[in-house]
Amino acid sequence: MKISIKKSLSDLQGLIILPFFESENEVKLPENLSHSTISSRVFNGKKDSIYMLEDEKNLLFFIGLGNSDATFKSIQTAFRRVTAKHESIFEEDFNIIFSNDFSNEHIQAAITGLKLGTYRLSHFKSTEKEKKDWNKINLTLISENSNLEKIAKDSIALASAQIETMKLVDLPANEVTPTYLANWAQEKSKELGFKVTILERKEAEEIGLHAFLAVSQGSSVKKSPRFIIAEYRHEQAKKHLGLVGKGVTFDTGGLNIKTAGMVHMKCDMGGAAAVLGSFTAAASLSLPINLTAIVPCVENSIDNDSFLPSDVIRSYSGKTIEVIDTDAEGRLILADGLSYLVKNYNPDSIIDLATLTGSAVGTFGYECAALFSKDQSLSSAIQEAGLAVGEKTWPLPMWDSYGKEMDSEIADIKNYHGKPFAGAITAAKFLEAFTDSHVSWAHIDIAGTAFGDSEFAKTKHATAFGVHLIIKFIEKL
Hints:
The mean pLDDT is 96. The strands form five sheets. Strands 9, 10, 11, 12, 13, 16, 17, 18 and 20 form a nine-stranded mixed β-sheet that branches. This protein has a six-stranded mixed β-sheet with strand order 1-8-7-2-6-5, covered by helices on one side. A three-stranded mixed β-sheet has the order 14-15-19. By secondary structure, it is α/β, with parallel strands linked by helices. It contains 13 helices and 22 strands. The longest helix is centred in the middle third of the chain and has 23 residues, at 148-170. α4 (178-192) runs parallel beside α7. It folds into two domains: 2-145, Leucine Aminopeptidase, subunit E, domain 1; 159-475, Aminopeptidase.
C-alpha cells in the first residue's frame, strides 16, 4: 500500500473514505465533493455503521466511529473491516479525508486498521481466485495534520510487523519450525541492520542451556532447537530493554500428552512471534532504545528420547529442575532464556511474553493478558501502554507464599505444582527463580489473547497481541 499526502481536496477521483464521529446533526461533507450534506436519518456516524453513495465521479464510503472518545481499538477495527470485508471496492487508487476532529492516535488507528484488514489466512489455497496485490494500491491521505506523513509511515511499518507476526503464528508447524524462525530472524537482521546470533543444539549444549534442550529431546532433526539472540542498538538510546519470547512451534504436551485442543498448538510460539514482531517494528521505526531479544525455539514432541515426568534436569542458571509435567514445557525454555539474558546482558528492564497457562485464560478469558511484576512502575507502564492500543493486561499477585508451591524434595525447584489452582501465578513464580532477582522484570501470559476467534476469519487465528503494546511501551520510556 503506497501512501501520498495532500492538504487539498482538488482532483479527487474514485473511492473516498470519510470517517465521522457520531452527531445528532446532519453530516457536513468537505467542500469540492458533489454532495454537501447527508441527512442524520441516513447516516449520523453511529458506531459500526457504514453508508455508501456513488455518483459519476466518486464512490463515497462513510464510516461511523461512534462518540469522539472512541478507543484506538474500536477505530482500528472499523477501518480494518473496510479492507477485510469490502475488498471489491478497492481499485488502483483510493482516498481518506481526515477532518480536524482526528488526533494523531485516531489517524494511526485508522491506517493500521486498513493495513491489518489486508491480511488473509488463505496461505495455501490453490483454488482461490487471484489475490489482490495491495502493494499496488495507492492511498492518498487528505488532512491538515502537520505530522501526517510520519504518522502514515510509522503506522504502515507497525501494521506490517503485526501482519508478519500473525503469519508466523498462523502458518502450520510443518512450515514454522525452529529453523524457520531462526532463518526469518536472520533475514530481517540483514534487511533492518540489527545483529542476530543463532545457537544450534551443539552450541547450546556447550554453554549449558540444558532446560531448553530437554524440551526438544523428542523432536526430529529437521525440527531441532534454535536459540535466537537478537541485538538492536541505537546511538541515542538511554535505556536497554530485554525481551524474551516463548517459541514452542508445536506443543503435543510431550509424554503428558494433551487430550484436547492440540490442533491449535501451532500457536504456542505466539510469545516468540510477538517478540520478533515488536523487535523488527522497533528497528523499522528506528526507536531510540537498545533492545536485546532472546527467543528459545523448540518443538515439544514425543519420541523414545523425550524427557520424562520425574526427570531432574539442569538449567543455564545452575539450578536443577524436577519435571512434574512435560506439558509445563514453555517455562523450561523461558528459564534458560531469562537466565541467559540476565547473565550476559543485564538490561535495565526485562519483559517476557508467553502463551503459558490455561489458568490465565480461566482467570481473564480472552479479554486481557495476565501480568506479573514486582516492579510497580514497570507494571503500570505496561498496563497503560496496552490500554492505549487495545492490548489489555491486568496484574496478578507475586507473593512469595505462592513460590513455596514450587518447592521440590529432590531438586532446587519443580516445574509444576500439580494442583488445580493458581496455575498462572505459580508459573510466574517459577520463572522468577531464573531472573537472578532482577529488580525490573515483568512476565505477560498471553495464552488467552495471542490466538482466538474474531469477525475476520471463520477459524481461530493470530492476533499479534503484544507487538503494539511493546512499541507503545518503548515510545513512552
